[in-house]
Amino acid sequence: MAEDLVLDTAIRDWVLIPLSVVMVLIGVLRYFVSKLIRSDQVPDIKIVKEGQVIIRARNLRAAANFIPAKSFRARRHYYSNEENGLLHVPKGQAQNPQAQMFSDPNMAMDMMKKNLSMIIPQTLTFAWVNFFFSGFVAAKIPFPLTQRFRAMLQNGIDLSTVDVSYVSSRSWYFLNLFGLRGLFSLILGEDNATDDAQRMMQMGGFGFDPTRSLGAEKDGLDIVQHDWALPKFEQRAVAVLKKLS
Amino acid sequence: MAVHEDSNPHKKKSSDALDEIPTFNVENMQNNTRVINYSRTFMSIIGGVIAGILGFTGLMGFIFYFLVMAITTVGLAAKTGFAVHSYFDSWNRIVLDGILGGLLSFVLFWTFAYDIVHIF
After folding, report:
1. ipTM of this complex
2. Which among B5, B41, B120 is the top mutation candidate for probing chain A, defined by the most A β-carbons within 10 Å of its own β-carbon?
3. Alpha-carbon gap: A4 to the closest alpha carbon of chain B (Å)
4. Smallest Cβ distance to B18: which of A8, A167, A236?
5. Domain residue ranges in chain B
6. InterPro entries per the record (chain B) (predicted)?
7. A218: closest CA among A73, A96, A48, A61?
8. Structural domain range at position A218
9. What gap in Å lies between CA A242 and CA B3, rounded to an integer?
10. A229 found inside a domain
11. Cβ–Cβ contact A142 with B under 8 A
12. Beta carbons of A87 and A57 less than 8 angstroms apart
């Protein structure tokens, strides 16, 4: 445990660097492939409508203080009255998102494509790493860790005497997998397909319920405290002009 | 400090005089936040490589990381002309956003550079 291991420079040249380069290239490849197979599905008109209504209501809420109280009340009534307000969803009309999902094969297909474009390269790379590079130490992280990390960092090596900070090649693969996300967001742009966390969120929100967001927006609109800003603007203008002179 | 994107001509209008009412453009603010995230990621990668080449180990490297992040914060604040509130809604955005997110990239590139330079 005390003495340092001596690693062969061939490991650096033929494992560490190639592995990292391959991970980067595969990330780039995956980005472009998923861009290619993404299908532009025609959005459902009802969903688009609801989305637009929500955006309009949100704008109203954000800019509420810049219109007179009467106008604000009128607009709020337009959005959230209980009979035919745009944000009001009659009970029982709420659609079950699960049922909606199964009724539209395109949606499921699209999700499967997305998933496949994520899973296949990962599986292949993992198999590749496993096949070629299994069973030896490839790197050493420059900070000490406790024994608990052994399972994580020395995946594939069954030696309990090796210092925990030595990393097996398989674990180096995992480190790359997570650590390169930042690099991808730099070289591929924000909305790259490699962002797994975002993907998870999308999947979680996949069967999202538009009626629920309508209801939430309605509640938000209902509790807005209206405070018209314009009467105070003259004083503010005076203050600004005084500051200028 | 060349990473503070200049491609940001339409930042949020100054709201010095309108302190009482927050007026801001959501899209511009998202853009500003994105710029911050880019800068942080970039700095964490560069910082990782530097830390690896200099051969920092253990706690020293993490101290270096937070030092780099502090420098980034100061740089971003300087970029806004120390009028943070005309670009962001609070100081937290500029001081704290993206620090933990960059840590993983930092560790990866730190390890990578350190191994290449010092281990073999």
Report:
1. 0.72
2. B120
3. 9
4. A236
5. 26-119
6. Emc6 (IPR008504), EMC6-like (IPR029008)
7. A61
8. 9-135+179-244
9. 38
10. yes
11. yes
12. yes
